[in-house]
Amino acid sequence: MTDPNNPDQNKPEDDWAEAMAEQTGDDAADGADDDPWAAALDEQAAVEQSAGEPAAAAPASAGNAGEQVFKPLDQGVASPGARDLEMIMDIPVKFTVELGRTRITIKQLLELTQGSVVELDGLAGEPMDILINGYLIAQGEVVVVEDRYGIRITEIITPSERVQKLNR
């Protein structure tokens, strides 16, 4: 219901209609010249030309626009493998050496005290498992270096050997 004493009551609808008219009027007048992708590609081409690189042609379709705007990662790098490794060098991993395992009941766990001995399934002199983030990658033997324990890697586990060990 409209109130004749309140002329602002119809104002939101009028504003909406005006905005729609402006938008359709601008699109018809400007056409494809106002395309933000085209403007960005032109700007990129200008930057590349000023840097002495060949300019990328405007894309024929949106599907290959990414190929022309973004450079492949391996351009300008002597060896692609070195760059790949550089990207992951600072990622921390959890390094674990496993002496052995055992299964005990909760009752046995609650009976453990200081000085208790827990028997493991690993044998003395048997290689220790070396795990990275929980995945077996190598085996080694325990060494003592200046009053600290260490591990000497004796065998690197190949991916096929890892699968075989999982099946045991």
Automatic annotation (TrEMBL):
Belongs to the FliN/MopA/SpaO family. Residues 24-36 have a biased composition (Acidic residues). Coiled coil: none annotated. It is a peripheral membrane protein. Pfam families: FliMN_C (PF01052). This is Flagellar motor switch protein FliN. GO terms for molecular function: cytoskeletal motor activity.
